[in-house]
Amino acid sequence: MKKIFYIIPAALLLFSSCEEKLDINQNPVQPVTTSSNLMLPGIEGNMAYHLYSHARYATYHSMYLTSRYGTARIEDRWDYNQITRLGAWRWHYFDVGSNAIGLIERAQQEGSDNYEGVGKIMLAYSYLTATDSFGDMPVLEAYTGDFSPTYDTQDVVYKEIERLLDEGMASLQASDAGDKTMNATSDLIYQGNLQHWMSFAHAIKAKMYLRTANFDGGYDRVMNEVNAALANWKDAIYYYSSNPQRDWERNMWGPSTPSPQWNFADIRNYLTYSVPTDFFMNYLTVDEPNIQYDPRLFKLTTPGEDNTYEAARVSLGLEGRDMSEFPNLYNGHWTSDSSPLPYVLEEELLFIKAEVAFHQGNKPAALEAYREGILTNMNRLGVEQDSLSNYMESAKVRKAADALKISDIMTQKYIALYLQPESWVDMRRYQYKETAYPGIYYPENVLTEFGGKWIQRLPYDPQTEYIYNPQEIERLGASARDWVTKKFWWEANSTL
Amino acid sequence: MKKSIRSMLWGLCLLLLHAHTFAQSASITGVVTSADDGIPLPGVTVRVKGGTDGTFTGPDGQYTINAEKGQVLVYSFIGFLPQERTIGNEGVINISLKTDAKTLDEVVVTALGIERDKRTLTYSVQTIGGEDLQDSNQPNIVNALQGQVAGAQITSSGGSPGLPSEIILRGVSSLTGDNQPLIIVDGVRVSNASINGTSNRLSDFNPNDIENVSILKGASASALYGIDAASGAVIITTKKGKAGDMRINAAYNTVVETVGRLPEQQKLYTVGFGGTFDNSTTSSWGRKYRVDEPIYDNPQRFFQTGVTHDANVNINGGTEKYTYYLSGNYRNGTSTIPNTEVDRLSLLMKGNSQLSEKLSFSASANYIANTIKEGLVGSSSGGWGNSIYRYPLRYDIEGYQYPNGDPNYVFYNNNGTPDIINDDTGIISPLWGVHRNPRSTEVKRIVLNGLLSYDVLDWLNLSYRLGQDFYNQQYGYVNVPGTPGSLEGRLYQTTGNYTNITSTFNATIDKDITPDIHATAIFGTNSEYYEGESLSVSGEKFQNPDIHSVNVIEAPNIGLGEGYARRRRYGVYGDVKVEYKSLFSLSYTGRNDWSSTLPADNRSFYYSSLGASFAFSELMDSQHWFGKLRASYAKVGKDAPIYSTDANLIKYQGIGGGFVKDATAGNPNLKPETTTEKEFGVEFRLFDNRLTFDATYYDAKSEDQIIRARVPLPTGYVIQTFNAGSIHNKGIEVSMGGTPVKSGDFSWNVTLNAWGNRSKMLELPDQVRVFPYTFGQPYTAAIAGSKLDEPVLGLIGTDYKRNEDGYMIIGEDGYPVIDSENKQQYIGNREPKVNFGLINKFNYKNFSLSFLWDFRVGGDVYNATRLGMTSAGISEDVGEWRDREFVFNGVVDRGDGNYVKNTQPVVLDYNYFTTNYTAVGTNFVEKVNWARMRYATVSYSLPENISKRLNVSRMNIEFSAQNPILITNYSGGDPEVNSAGPNAGGAEGGSTMGVDYGAIPLPKSYSVGISVGF
């Protein structure tokens, strides 16, 4: 019996030497941290994926496309009530956000102001992309380890974005030779050019201020930011491989329907099952003697089998026609495996400038920016000179400042930003009104229970938010069946 | 030839033994027989009391020994009471030994392999003999235990070879992670993991080698094992060599397997949408089949009859000082699924030597090669049966290829745009994948075991055991070029080396302190080291379509990954038990563990258990019966999954490379999870052991659950391991055994096991109310999950809106209204209410018959297979109800809060089925009962005179059937389902038992076997 009194101390003695042998709980084949230049490429790639994860829905809600069936739950009926995941939420908070925060922390330790600045700007852009689909979301209590953070209202989110951009720009200005090198290897967007990053930060501000300019903050600061951005502008574009071998190197819009992250059932490419809407096709139809279609149509899509360009009514599917009569959505400028994916394009800034000038009452400036926007987009898509001039001469393009209407600017921006989620923001800013989008109509197959209300937002990720933060979800009312029709702060307050 | 080897070995044994038997006086001879039946006993030890000389009886029970008059001869043999005889003048002493009922019936193997008298145990242990397992003819030991253990919930994942089976004792104690009991083979922990969803690794072991299996069901029984003991333990003891003549047993079995119960399909409507024919969809919502159109019975055409051969040989024997056991098993077969194969070889060598009177050494080595080639790669949430059950009957499932071997796509989903390169939307029969893309698992395993035991004093034993379970597992699959989704081909292969080293030192004390007080104690230390190294390779686009190797894949298309997991644990423990006269016993167990997986501050933890028993029958005149009460309380701790304390970075796969965060966050504050359990039991043995009864009530609570789960994304991570939540399980286990008839040639034995577990989710992390299981979510209508204050193995989903009386509320349109604001209602409990296992055994002369009925009462099954088939328009429901007029049994709101009965007839059309019926989980949750005959085995032993003539000592012929009868109210196939398999190996998600998502039914199989002993 007494043996225990010997064995236990003896064993304890043994274990004090074993203590070291127990220190084996760090994975020896996986790093815990790495230097900032090795963290940026992943953030930039994930940001492209993040934009896609919104665009994948927004293109249907902004009515560029509709499903060929007419029965698709989300695309045709706006019914998000049976989804299991909403990946876009994760692509912000984890894939871009968490990595950007890791980069910022690491850059601060290293004293690399350049990476710290870029990290903050990327985080800001990711927040803006996310909040414009989700609305209220945690920002002040995000990344604190809190399992049930408070959802901040969108104005608070915008303030945080503004703070991140200001801090980011300050860091860029503080950058010196002591920083870790940022070059084409580590920065796939601007190859380490901090001046361009500065312009990009101004562009994000311009986009953000534009959303509220009509009721808060005014148009002047938007104009200032746009001009600051355009002064030293280089397009913020994520380039996929020109000869992609793996899904990771392919544009998600491409015909290979790449799926590098296999577990994200909802971030898919359904162009195979999609056709252009008559609403969009009307904008691309000129129907004049020497010009039938907007020349960009041939750049954005490939002709159908019969060289015809049928269009479908929104949410009604093919209605008995054959797919071959519709244009093929693949292998257009933005929809091939090797297509680039834009963060922000010059034409977007030009159309912002046009819109702002228009609302400021400066129609000549608006017209100039508007025409420049069209030309920039035409040139980007490689439209041939004679088609371009035919188009510019057509009735589709305003020539006189007095005749310029807001719908001219918004429809041209809509065409130029084909497949970009920003178009859905614009459409909601103008509350789907015909004054901005002539010919817009409410789709027939939308759930009748929505009572004619338009789609305004995406639901939060059901797999996490509705499980871990049910109190906040309840407070917001986000489990209502018609949650997706609830207007945003900047839309509810809009005077447009 | 055989005979000469036998006599040689026999001679060798004699030589070894008789080294001392010269130079003595008189020679005594005689025959030792069994008092029961008078049959001669070979291998009985005969020795002179007080001396070192001894001998064994020969094959006919004969012995010869030299001894002097007045000396005492001692006859002893395992399972019999020893006998002494003083030598007189006689030269011949014949002895008949009486069986020792006590040792045969009442010694059970408990924690650390210690044999204990069952009469004084303070907790519940159930022992299953090897023959009972062999009667079931199941190659997977886990399945062989089905119905034989009160409290063991055993669920197969399906009837395809290589699918794992899950065993859970006393309910789920951990929400995520491993809930399966510890598996110990001869004192060494062995892996029962099912990596990559392949077979649970206990299936590697040869059931024929098993002497018995002891099930330590609760924390009290298994507390000495420390970490992981919260889920109980399965202690397997393999056969040992027995002293005496060499015995050879050989057996051969052929099994024929046919497909089990399949879900039914409609045979009325062809492909299409909403009633219109459309041959560009797999949906069967088209018009009615025309008379001239063929309708293929695809499920029946898909499955086939499988044949398995199983050969088994074992040899054992030895002397008093050395015994050996050698066995070999080879099993090879096909299954009900085409192009599948199981190939298992097992070789076991065991030896034991008594080095001196006090020191003994035993060692064993088990080599296993187990290769399984099986059907298709299932999705993580379920079986691949869906691809069979939903394949349109318009297409012949057997037409998966052209005569030249090219894939035969029945259509392209992507019609209208054929110019797209890489069109991988082709739809093809699932037989393409089965024949061309099977996955294979190849395991090479060696289990080594050495035990040195030293009897320091007659009451003190020291022992040291070192064991290693090592296996190499290669798992992989190939998608040959032409497979939709990977037209240019793809491969994945992972090779892992998994090692578990266990080292245990024990000091065992067994002493009568006073004539009335007996004390036993164990003090020991234990260390365990686990290492899992793996390398996985994936690649796509075979440059040469005929060769499926990375050698023909270009470098950029090859992906590599390395895994290296390690864990070390130390334990120090003590167990003291004091017995008073075999009337009372009291025991205390304490154990301290150290685990590398916990943060340094929390890695050491102590827990203890306490138990008492009271054999009240000892107070009375109880020559013919025995009665006991027992009670125990135990607390056990559990450590965290490996590498949960730090977050890691992983390689960024996209352009530019570098690193991104891994989705799993670290948690530097983890602490051990604890389970506390109370257990009360009562035992009776009545009518001279003719009737036994054992009942146990337990109540267990697991707290500070170590959960690895999704976390809200605003934390910056996707998954994290944390301490939260608590689970409560309680239940009753009853085991009864009886011998209703025992007369001369005829005997009838009955065993009944009955059990039921009730669980409740007491606490969930933070604000969480519903915890979904990662791999149990086939459709949003219902998922597997746990809801606060509800049973743990729950089903969560949607129901219709109901009024206060529970009637469905019918909308203005005449259809029931979905309660879609409350999508997370608790709608089912997947745990059966009560289970019964009823085993009957009849013996008449040379015949014996045994069969096991398995009854299950209650418990819900989520028929997600039917949900999917209904969405696709191919379920039997659709055939029966589609386009029929129907009045829903429900009520209509009159608008003033009053309800009237619904009378409005509506048509059950496409729209109803796809947007209403399949969106409601309760339509697919079924309360399932079954009566199932797990096995029936008839065997016949040839009479001795015939076997003698055949030159064998015995010969047995056996017919057996597995799963031949299944009576159930379930609307689908076989209701024994577990869509994502067991959670062994630390995978995320609790058990998915009761989730039917494309399950392959358990086969019905029939076997013929012959076994011979030499």
From TrEMBL, chain A:
InterPro entries for the chain: SusD-like_2, TPR-like_helical_dom_sf
Gene3D superfamilies: 1.25.40.390
Presence of the UniProt keyword Lipoprotein in the record: yes
Keyword list, A-Z: Lipoprotein
UniProt keyword annotation of Lipoprotein present: yes
A Pfam family matched in the record: SusD-like_2
SUPFAM superfamilies referenced in this protein's UniProt entry, alphabetically: TPR-like
Full protein name: SusD/RagB family nutrient-binding outer membrane lipoprotein
Native source species: Pontibacter oryzae
Automatic annotation (TrEMBL), chain B:
Compartments where found: Cell outer membrane
Keywords from the named record: Cell outer membrane, Membrane, Receptor, Signal, TonB box, Transmembrane, Transmembrane beta strand, Transport
The TonB-dependent receptor plug domain, residue ranges: 117-233
Primary location class: membrane
Single GO MF annotation: siderophore uptake transmembrane transporter activity
Taxonomic superkingdom: Bacteria
UniProt cross-references to Pfam families, sorted A to Z: CarbopepD_reg_2 (PF13715), Plug (PF07715), TonB_dep_Rec_b-barrel (PF00593)
Record's keyword annotation contains Cytoplasm: no
GO cellular component, one term: cell outer membrane
Residue intervals of the TonB-dependent receptor-like beta-barrel domain: 393-757
Signal sequence range: 1-23
Record membrane topology: Multi-pass membrane protein
UniProt cross-references to InterPro entries, sorted A to Z: Beta-barrel_TonB, Beta-barrel_TonB_sf, CarboxyPept-like_regulatory, Plug_dom, Plug_dom_sf, TonB-dep_OMP_SusC/RagA, TonB-dep_OMP_SusC/RagA_CS, TonB-dep_rcpt-like
GO process annotations (BP): siderophore transmembrane transport
Family: Belongs to the TonB-dependent receptor family.
Protein name: SusC/RagA family TonB-linked outer membrane protein
